[in-house]
Amino acid sequence: MYLELDRLSKQFDGKYAVHDLSLGLEEGGLLCILGSSGCGKTTTLNMIGGFLKPDGGRVLLDGQDITALPPERRPVSTVFQSYGLFPHMSVLQNVTYGLKFRGYSRAEAKEKGRRYLSLVGLAERENARIGELSGGQQQRVALARALIVEPKLCLLDEPLSNLDAALRVRMRGELKRLQRELGTTMVFVTHDQEEALILADSIAVMSEGELLQLGSAEEVFRHPANDYIASFLGLNDIVWKDDGSVLKVIRHGEKE
Amino acid sequence: MKSAGAIQKNTEKRASHDVLFSLCENAADKLILLVLLGSVLLFILWPIACIALRSLRGADGGVSFAMFGTVLRQCGESLRNSVFVGVFTAVLSTILSLSAALVCATARGWKKTLCMIIMLVAMVSPPFVSSLAYIQLYGRRGWITYRLLHLSLNPYNRWGVILMQSISFVPLNAMFLSGILEKLDEGSLRSARDLGASGGVILRDIVLPLIRPATLVCLLLSFVRSLADFGTPIIIGGRFSTLAADIYLQVVGYSDLEKSSAMNMFLLIPSIVFFFVYRALMRRSDRLTDASRTAQTELGLLLPHCGAMGWGMIALSTVFFVMIVLQYGCVFLSGFLKSTKGVYSFTLQYWDQLWRIGSSTMLRSVEYALIVSIAGTVFAMLFAYYMDRRRIIGRSLFDCLATLPYMLPGTCFGIGYILAFNHAPLKLTGTALIVLANMLFKQLPTSTKICTASLALLPEVQERSARDLGAGRLAVLRDVVFPALRPAFLSCFVYNFTSSMTTAGSIIFLIDAKRQLAVFKLFDAVYQGDYALASLIASVITVIVLLVEGLAFLITRKGENRRVSRT
Q: Which of B470, B484, B567 is opposite residue A98, by nearest beta carbon?
């Protein structure tokens, strides 16, 4: 396995936020951690990113134990829910910030920054300030900034939750395209079943700090391991394509 | 793909430095933290501990409470006077401050601007100025009492002290209260009006209860400041003396450190007790107001529509503003007027005098203030950051220590420094360093508060992003934290500069006779009755501070304009 979480645990005030979590992900795959709020998914992400020290267990990436490394030395980058963009820097400065610590010359960094900006469709906005951008554009900057350092693993913490519904659907497609194009391994945290279903190669369903089920999108949705998962997922009717991917999701209550 | 190969190489080159670099950065990070915490222990806790230890030292070197008995016997009357003045000053000053703050918060247009300007000038002017003006205006030969009303009153008594202290504490108190008023939830005021409450009722039922903890804080602060103030009783107390004035005379006259330590304990203990009450009150005040809101330009309330209480407040603050304007007008004028047989004429002769004796002193004051402003601001920024964003063992203890000087009487803090740094290996007495350190740490509570407030606007996720992308702890400080604190830097700088130019109490015992500061030239001039020279020094200090504030304001506005024009 490329990414391996080995019996990760984390307690807050004597209560397990994450308990004995083990899972694995192949290189180039996109894993969704799915669960309602408070299920421990963000805690898990923070432990992979290095922002929280696990109480027990290990994080292995590409055969290396990274559990003890601080965030700045992990080959992992994150797209935060609120993006965490630097408002005092321009778009290009934001995107190329991580290259500063990777031995790039200014010219190289600029060139690569422009390439990634055009990859997310923001080539003309390189000199704009963060405050001038719309929510969707900020989202793209955050994505470009995380991907430009060519991380072995990219983490996304509910990155679409701050966008309005139509934009969310569009960004979903774009994210999938970028991931395929760059072949980046990604872990994506969400509470939105539809998002998980459409984006993920594999889905990990969590509840109360524990992993309930890990499998491909189709497995998890077609054969939920228990009643809780069934009721958590069972809000939608799904029209499957023959290859196991999703053709259409019909939300209950929508006229279709 | 060629460029990708080159970049790959670069990445590897950097990676080999990585471990070493990261170790160094971590070490530097720890070192900064150690210096910050160590300085707080050394320059705040240790001097205070020294006072307590010295006051308990008996004649034979053992522990003894004998000195307290002596102090109580000899200074009992001063102690009672201190409490008497403190209580009256606290109440009077709080009522005045509350009125002035409400007038400032509810006034509109030019009236608001005028109020703010008067407050600003009053706040940046050096101490002793109100006493100086008091003598000039209401003294035996006062412009108002003698020349205008043909009275010959003796102004040197306890009521003069109370009045002058009350007035000179108002600007600071009122600024503090307006800060709280700005944070009141507009929604509660609106809904009260919506439910049919009139202005007066809103004031009584909503506004005053919401700012009650802050009002109590005002009372406490005024009381402690009154206890600590030695200048006013010395200048206009006449035969009426307070404990702080006694301490001053004791140290300057007899250099009896045991006795003055014991005397200081009577100021120190109540201030520390009040300090904890203050913290509890501030926490309660924060719960009552909407701390997240930045500023609200005006309170949706008009004082004239607030019934008798509203008019009372307007009347009181009008009296206050008129007195302040008279005071500063008088101080400013007396620097340029010469009296020959009761007839005044314009003169510049005091300028020559000032130039002869005061120019180097004035320069030194500015120089010290600049050093403290820069060093203190950087220290406060780092301290606020490490306290706010890092999980440090004993954080609440350090936080508490760093806020303590806020309530500490200046003389206590000064004497603590003499006791703490009088012998090797920490022999600092007589140096400029001890004065600078004293100013810096006396001002640390407010500096830290300014920086913490600004830091609260910086989402932690920005720091995380930077680290996530490879920035070490110091790079995060440089690239994310310091840029975000830029507005705080300026206000912190201005605060430190103003305080350093006008502070007196805590450094009066630390100043070397060869390295005088302008404030003490001012004190000497007032004390010796050289009012014209004193007025001139006071005016020059005020003008310098106002210039620096104006400059800082312009820089801020320019920065904002640039940011706006880019967007």
A: B470
What is the spatial distance between Cα A39 and Cα B141, in angstroms, rounded to a whole number?
Answer: 80
Q: How close is the nearest chain A Cα to the Cα of B188, in Å?
A: 30
**Domain covering A1-75+153-256, topology:** Rossmann fold (3.40.50)
- One fold for both B18-58+349-567 and B78-334? yes
Q: Where are the domains of chain B?
A: 18-58+349-567, 78-334
DSSP B54: H
Whether the CB-CB separation of B167 and B119 falls below 8 Å is answered with no
Listed by start position, the domains of chain A span 1-75+153-256, 83-150
Contact between B389 and B454 (Cβ < 8 Å):
no
B385 closest CA partner among B295, B473, B301: B473
Query: What values do phi and psi take at B286, rounded to 5?
Result: -65, -35
For the structural domain made of B78-334, what CATH number should be given?
A: 1.10.3720.10
Give pLDDT tens digits for B216-244. 999 999 999 898 888 888 888 878 888 88
User: How far, in Å, CA of A99 to CA of A77, rounded?
Assistant: 12
ipTM of model: 0.76
Mutate to test the interface with B, among A46, A97, A130, A187 (most CBs of B within 10 A): A97
pLDDT tens-digit series, residues B121-164: 888 778 788 788 888 888 777 777 777 777 777 778 888 889 88
Are B14 and A101 a contacting pair at CB < 8 A?
yes
CATH number of B18-58+349-567: 1.10.3720.10
Tokens of B90: 């606290």
Q: Read off the pTM.
A: 0.81
CB atoms within 10 A of CB B248: 22
SS3 A75: coil
| CB contact residues (below 8 A), chain A span 170-229, against chain B | none
Distance CA B484, CA A87 (A): 9
CA–CA dist B27, B25 (Å, integer): 5
* B261 Cβ contact partners less than 8 Å away, ≥ 6 residues apart: B51, B52, B54, B55, B67, B415, B419
